[in-house]
Write a structure and sequence with these properties.
The chain is mainly alpha-helical. It has 18 helices and 2 strands. 60% of the residues lie in helices and 1% in strands. The protein has a two-stranded antiparallel ribbon with strand order 1-2. Helix 10 packs antiparallel against helix 12.
């Protein structure tokens, strides 16, 4: 068979619909040529930039803002607002179908060395929150510290009576939680933050490096600090009776009455009282409105890095920074922080609890579920609205199970959910003991807001709900 000429090749391209189309053979690669290096792995929680602009998502945001603007007084347009919101939901669904909403790729926890020639490579073990897995030490839970922790927590629970923290029940409670953490914690191969800090301190010379992104992060967080603390002593200027009763509770704490639950003024959880007591002892601001405001402003700032981390885990670092910026300068977060209201404790504990829950589900790491449970349990001692977050955790895990098809992934999620519940329950024990003895006092504040216990409701509850919304 004769070799085709250049003319034959040109004809085959002109009459491309014929089966005799010709193509030039590809050059064979040189034997000694090394493969091109692969791109480095994406950093944890950071997605590579998308080559296209998410027009559907941006359009949904724009229509949602227009809908909210239509609902604002004084000239409210209910029908127009509903139309805008319907358009926003439609674009949101289109954005989801077009793939504009995607989680960032997970990093490889520990890169494995390349196998030698002729060496067999064993497949990686499937990760499991209770049995160890990728990124952990592969060990299961430890029985001795587990049962020791249960014994200590039971002892603390029995001694939490009379609505008092004592040296004995407090240390027993904390040691029981520490024992449970030791029973389930994974030993990470990478050095901890404390170990890295010690290594850096022991160096003969200290070097400081600041990237442009780190500088931008500091500027955004600094703006949030300014919004929270500028003229904090005079804005807002005066207390109300609610603040005065809180200061009475703080007085009790600093004068030998360490309550678990403070029954004054329809009842309050303990966190803000001990936080304000610490502010008074540290800053010498006395039993004042400023002491209350410093504590809540600090807790509002405490939530911001966790909001950034959650946004970074769900999207990328730009999404996290934008979320932190908006939360740092928004009107209502600053109002409730400056007014020394306990509302700010709700996002301060919800943000880390959800961050570690989402990270645990995505990376299937036991330690993340443990941390999620610890933050969730501590938040239940902050403000009563935190009691809805355990249900939100169940919803998040349920949605994860709906989107996971493999049995190991679902089993890991259920085991992680049990770990989160176990540790939140352990931290919640003091309030649980008081709740069993005084259920009406713990639930009184919530019931006066949800039912007609204190005052008759002015109308049907569902109608009031949508009117408020």
């Amino acid at each position: 068979m004769e070799e085709p000429t250049v003319l034959d090749y040109i004809k085959s391209k002109i009459f491309f619909w014929k089966e005799s189309a010709l193509s030039l053979p590809a050059d064979e690669p040189a034997e000694a040529e090394a493969p091109a290096p692969e791109e480095p792995e994406t950093a944890p929680g950071v997605a590579r930039p998308s080559p296209h602009i998410p027009w559907y998502s941006l359009g949904a945001l724009g229509f949602a803002l227009l809908g909210q603007l239509a609902f604002e007084p004084p000239d409210r347009a209910l029908q127009g607002g509903l139309v805008f919101y319907a358009a926003a939901v439609s674009l949101l669904l289109l954005a989801f179908r077009r793939g504009e909403w995607r989680l960032p790729p997970l990093p490889i926890p520990h890169p494995q060395p390349s196998p030698r020639k002729g060496e067999e490579v064993s497949p990686p073990l499937p990760p499991s929150p209770l049995g160890g897995g990728v990124g952990g030490d592969g060990r299961g839970w430890q029985k001795r510290p587990f049962f020791l922790g249960l014994l200590l927590l039971l002892t603390a629970f029995l001694t939490f009576g009379n609505n008092r923290f004592t040296a004995f029940n407090l240390y027993t409670w904390l040691l029981g939680i520490a024992a449970l953490v030791s029973a389930f914690r994974e030993q990470d191969a990478s050095p901890s933050l404390w170990q890295r800090s010690l290594t850096w301190i022991r160096r003969p010379t200290w070097e400081f490096r600041l990237t442009r992104w780190q500088a931008l992060w500091i500027v955004v967080f600094g703006a949030a600090v300014w919004f929270h603390f500028y003229r904090l002593g005079s804005v807002p200027p005066e207390m109300v009776s609610d603040h005065a009763e809180k200061l009475l509770d703080v007085w009790d704490v600093l004068h030998g009455q360490p309550h678990i639950f403070f029954p004054r003024n329809t009842g309050r959880e303990f966190f803000q009282m001990y936080l304000t007591a610490a502010v008074i002892l540290l800053f010498r601001t006395g039993y004042s409105f400023l002491s209350l405001k410093i504590g809540t402003a600090l807790m509002s700032l405490f939530a911001l890095p966790w909001i950034y981390a959650l946004g970074k885990e769900l999207g990328n670092r730009r999404a996290g920074l934008l979320a932190m910026a908006l939360a740092g300068i928004a009107y209502w977060p600053n109002v409730i922080a400056r007014a020394a209201l306990r509302f700010t404790l709700y996002p301060a504990f919800t943000a880390p609890a959800l961050y570690y829950l989402v990270r645990g589900l995505r990376r299937r790491r036991r330690n993340d579920f443990i941390l999620s449970g610890l933050w969730l349990g501590l938040g239940l001692h902050g403000y009563s609205t935190m009691r809805i977050v355990p249900f939100a955790v169940a919803v998040v895990v349920g949605l994860y199970l709906l989107h996971r098809r493999t049995r190991p992934e679902r089993l890991d999620a259920l085991q992680g959910f049990l770990l989160t519940g176990l540790f939140s329950f352990a931290v919640f024990l003091p309030l649980l003991r008081y709740m069993l003895e005084n259920p009406e006092m713990v639930n009184y504040r919530a019931m006066t807001r949800l039912t007609g216990l204190e005052h008759p409701l002015p109308g049907p509850p569902l109608q009031i709900f949508f009117s408020n919304l």
